[in-house]
Amino acid sequence: NKETTIVHAPLPSTSTRASTINKTIQSIVNIIKPAWLSILLVFIPLGIISYYLHWGDASTFSLNFLAIIPLAKLLGTVTEDIALRISQKIGGLLKATFENAVELIVSISAIRQGLIRVVQASILGSIISNLLLVLGMFFLVVGYHVKEYNFNQTAAQTRASLMTLACIALIIPTALHANADKNEITQGILNLSHGTAVVLLIVYAFYLYFQLKTHKYLHNEIHEDAELEELEEREEPQLSLSISVALSAVITVAIAFCGEFLVSSIEGISETSGLSKTFVGLILIPIVSNVANAAEHMAAVSEAKGDMDLIIGAAVGSSI
């Protein structure tokens, strides 16, 4: 009779598990290590406490406003860590999508509380800040060193066409509302807005298919050399995929709470401070996201190394 030898795989030792946990904790600490971010994290519990202890609308708004800034920065950092595991194009799309997470969450809270004017102003403010502030900053910094750069004309025209379509979608309902009898046109504007929203979602889906599938070669023509450099210089992810996804979920929930508390105080702060709801949506809410991502925008300029497609895509992609 032949003897059968069974070899059991060694179980991970306690020291191995402890080393893994310590490495994960150290990676998380490195993510929140910047001094200004560590200081602003204090406002997260303070913002929540201010709402439940009724410290007043001004305190609730200010504390939660400051609390969302580090949360948006952390969400962007974790998203970038996830993006390192996938291709440059899809990673850029993922980062551009999550950069708008703050505006999206705050807008949902404002819609739930009936602050439609704040939602409208925040959408417009986000587009203006990305196209003027962010893109203008890119051009200023890059143009200071080199006078002329090449870019992919087809990709730029595609993004410009989508932005034109989005502007038309905002202008038409506004024009109808301003020049028609409100009692007669209200239902028509509502139906038009619903139809426009569906059309914009469908067009955006086609744009993704165009960019990532059918015509991705148009977006890769100028990136071939940059991608070779990226393979050599690309950073390694600091966190495991499961930890990154879990952190993204936790941070998103925290943003949802702080955003809800911030929106709930807009009515009161508008009455006491004289700040209009339009100003809050047009200026203050977009600032929360753009201030948090200012470091990432400057890093994108540095890493682009003359690749104007990456620069334009980072700014315009967030607006789209």
Topology:
Layout (H helix, E strand, L loop, with lengths): L13 H18 L3 H6 L2 H10 L4 H27 L4 H12 L1 H12 L3 H30 L7 H27 L2 H33 L1 H5 L3 H10 L7 H24 L1 H8 L3 H16 L1 H11 L3 H12 L1
Task: Tell me about this structure.
This protein is an all-alpha fold and about 325 residues long. The chain has two domains: about 190 residues, no CATH class; about 70 residues. It is built from 16 helices and no strands. α6 packs across α12, α7 packs parallel to α15 and α8 runs antiparallel to α9. The longest helix has about 35 residues. The mean pLDDT is about 75. GO terms for molecular function: calcium:proton antiporter activity. This is Vacuolar calcium ion transporter.
Instruction: Determine the fraction of residues in helical runs and give it as a percent range.
Output: over 70%
Tell me the strand percentage band. under 5%
| SS element count, helices | 16
Count all strands and give the number: 0
Reported for the largest beta sheet, the result is: none
> What integer is the average pLDDT?
76
GO biological process, one term: intracellular calcium ion homeostasis
InterPro entries: CaH_exchang, CAX-like, NaCa_Exmemb, NCX_ion-bd_dom_sf
GO cellular component, one term: endomembrane system
Function: Has a role in promoting intracellular calcium ion sequestration via the exchange of calcium ions for hydrogen ions across the vacuolar membrane. Involved also in manganese ion homeostasis via its uptake into the vacuole.
